[in-house]
Design brief:
The complex is a heterodimer of chains A (about 270) and B (about 375). Chain A is built from six helices and twelve strands. Chain A has helices at about 35-45, 55-70, 95-115, 145-150, 170-175, 190-200, and strands spanning about 85, 120-125, 135, 155-165, 185-190, 215, 220-225, 230-235, 240-245, 245-250, 250-255, 260-265. In chain A, strands 1, 2, 4, 5, 6, 8, 9 and 12 form an eight-stranded mixed sheet that branches. In chain A, strand 8 and strand 9 (about 240-245) form a beta hairpin. The two termini of chain A are about 20 Å apart. Chain B is globular. Chain B has about 375 residues and is an alpha/beta fold. Helix content of chain B is about 40%, strand content about 10%. Classes of the chains: A alpha+beta (about 270), B alpha/beta (about 375). Strand 2 of chain A pairs parallel with strand 1 (about 5-10) of chain B.
């Protein structure tokens, strides 16, 4: 068993987490899934091919759920919040940082502000850091498989935003090495494309009147400056992207109850 | 409709006004400017540069505000409760000089002088001198009662940088009643005018209780600040001090979210607003620390629990200890003393337990935060 009763990854040897027992202070609410709305947004904001039908989207997403349910190692993952999405890479922007800055975040902003016209979406790069030319993939993330699958074809997937909540970023990455393959589907550490697509389809995921929500880490993406990490967060009614320091102090990295790495399952 | 994505790097995130202020600092206070630049460079390495808020003169005050978190520190309250004075020594000028030196070495560049009412301290001029206004921005918290034109010029002449003047309602009677001082509202308006004439940086500080942010009165205060071009600093009423039993005053996430929405409309901010290239978050230790009159360092203006005493240990050691405490160091969005019910419970029960042993606040480290978990423990 790799996931607990709330869909969090059970920490293995050497993993660094905020707390021994998972906290539920920063939480997300499992939304009622409206495949039509999600698909419409993914199409409108340029992450889904126009030809994909809702029937196809839904049946492919549900087939992934069946595969997870049938696998005892992964079934508990579904006890956590999970969001379906569709993503297809359009264009030839090979550089991950440029793609994130110029395409994905812009699309996400469009989707978010269409849903919340009075709120802002902004991106802040701490200490004048840059994204273009500075982003690579973590070696354990299995994210290259996601990129390859989405090049020229629509990937349907599920984003599990709280699967690695309270893990420090190093542990979010390292735990991937011990996750078994998922028969009939693919799994990766969540990164820029899948999270953007999931939030484009469900722009209200991180917004709550009632409680504080987790800050989601794009941990499959590694910045050239090892001190920096990439995050998406709510700021009250607003949404923000931050490229910011991972250093808690000069000799220790951040480990936060609120920061959450994600896992993405796709087919 | 298409909107260009705002990609805000440090430089671009600064308003023109802020850029001009920084340029001004580079000429008037080169050491302050140098420390600000160093902070931006060191931020990625985990460097912090918190405000140090000095509670001077045993928190002596001429007001009796309904929401005061300082009352339990005041001699008048101690006399009432236990019939004696606070036996702990007030930090002397040489100790403040040493604190200023350590703060400068650490990269800190802001001191707030507060009380009680800081202007009641007859040695304020000497204190400002030992803190060194060329090395640190000296900011004054005041209720405005005695802050007339002469006093504002006096403070500016000593090298003072900014005045933070409290205004708790745009309705005169409401402000005076909340502050427990008739005539206070009019004096605040006079103080604002005086600060402007003395060319001081200026802000209005206001305390919000639950639902006030949705009121017409609050909106009119925001409008006033917009018209007068005075930044409005909003603090959340905390269930501590005089307000310890006032649970109904505690703001909810809805209140706090509305403030975040208003930040885009008006020049208002809270201690959790994004600033100096940092996202909006709880600023315990990393953003602001209070230094009690006896040197105890409290990692937030509204808490009563210490993380160490700067007259007994180096400042750097105390701040590092604070950053490694699981409540205080790690990233979190919410104001823990204003919103997090588990923390408020822990805080207030630590105070209640300590009061069985001693009437003096803050609760020393070993009786409060020392009993909580450090990161990686």
């Amino acid at each position: 068993m790799y996931f607990n009763e709330i869909g969090r990854r059970i920490p293995g040897e050497g993993m660094r987490l905020f707390g021994k027992e998972p906290s539920n202070y920063y939480k997300l609410t499992q939304p009622k899934l409206d495949y039509q709305k999600i698909l419409d947004r993914c199409k409108r904001f340029n992450v889904s091919p126009a030809g994909l039908t809702v029937v196809d989207f839904k049946s492919r997403a549900e087939a992934l759920v069946d595969k997870l349910n049938a696998n005892p190692a992964y079934a508990n993952l579904l006890k956590g919040v999970h969001i379906p999405f569709v993503f297809q890479r359009i264009g030839s922007e090979a550089d991950l940082g440029s793609n994130l800055e110029n395409t994905l975040l812009s699309n996400l902003q469009e989707s978010f502000t269409a849903c919340y016209p009075e709120a802002h979406f902004k991106a802040v790069l701490q200490s004048n850091s840059k994204l273009p030319g500075n982003i690579t993939l973590d070696k354990d993330s299995r994210y290259q498989g996601f990129i390859d699958a989405s090049q020229g074809a629509a990937v349907v997937g599920w984003y599990f935003p709280q699967a690695l909540q309270e893990y420090d970023v190093r542990s979010q990455r390292e735990q991937m090495a011990s996750l078994p393959e998922l028969k009939g589907a693919n799994i990766c550490l969540s990164g820029g494309m899948d999270i953007s697509a999931a939030l484009i389809g469900s722009p209200d995921l991180l917004i709550s009147d009632e409680h504080y929500t987790p800050i989601v880490c794009l941990s499959a993406y590694v910045h050239a400056d090892p001190r920096l990490v990439l995050l998406l967060k709510a700021y009250g009614p607003h949404m923000e992207f931050w490229c910011m320091t991972n250093m808690l102090t000069k000799d220790a990295t951040q480990v936060s109850e609120q920061w959450a790495g994600g896992i993405t399952v796709f087919g | 409709m298409s909107h260009a994505l705002q990609i805000l790097a440090e430089q671009e995130a600064l308003s023109l006004t802020e850029k001009n202020k920084r340029k001004d600092q580079s000429q008037r206070r080169p050491r302050v400017h140098e420390k600000i630049q160093q902070y931006f460079k060191g931020m990625l390495d985990g460097q912090i540069s918190p405000i140090l808020r000095l509670k001077i003169n045993r928190s002596l005050c001429n007001f009796h505000c309904a929401h005061c978190c300082e009352e339990p520190y005041m001699t008048r309250d101690l006399k009432k409760r236990i019939g004696t004075l606070d036996p702990r020594p007030q930090m002397g000028l040489e100790e403040y000089r040493e604190l200023s030196r350590q703060a400068d070495e650490y990269g800190i560049f802001r001191f707030v002088l507060t009380g009680g009412e800081a202007l009641l301290d007859k040695n304020l001029d000497k204190l400002i001198e030992v803190l060194d206004p060329m090395k640190h921005l000296i900011i004054l918290d005041t209720n405005g009662w005695t802050f007339d034109e002469d006093k504002a010029k006096w403070f500016a002449g000593l090298g003072g940088y900014k005045a933070q003047i409290s205004l708790d309602s745009m309705i005169e009677e409401e402000h005076d009643s909340f502050r427990g001082k008739k005539g206070s509202y009019k004096r605040v308006l006079r103080a604002l005018d005086a600060a402007k004439k003395a060319n001081l940086e200026l802000l209005i500080s206001t305390c919000v209780v639950k639902d006030r942010v949705f009121s017409d009165e609050f909106e009119s205060l925001c409008e006033y600040c917009k018209v007068e071009e005075i930044p409005l600093y909003v603090t959340l009423a905390k269930p501590v001090g005089t307000a310890r039993e006032q649970d109904t005053w505690v703001c909810t996430k809805k209140d706090v979210d509305h403030l975040k929405y208003l930040e885009n409309k008006y020049n208002i901010f809270t201690h959790m607003s994004p600033s100096y290239g940092q996202p909006g978050r709880c600023i315990t230790v990393k953003g602001i620390n209070t230094v009690n009159h006896d040197g105890e360092i409290v990692p937030c203006p509204y808490m009563d629990l210490s993380i160490g005493n700067v007259t007994k240990e180096p400042l750097s050691l105390i701040l590092d200890r604070g950053m490694k405490n699981s409540w205080l160091g790690p990233y979190r969005d919410e104001c823990i003393i204003g919103e997090h019910k588990d923390f408020i419970r822990f805080h207030n029960s630590s105070v209640a337990d300590y009061w069985k042993v001693s009437p003096l606040l803050p609760v020393p480290y070993e009786h409060g935060f020392g009993r909580t978990r450090a990161v990686d423990e």
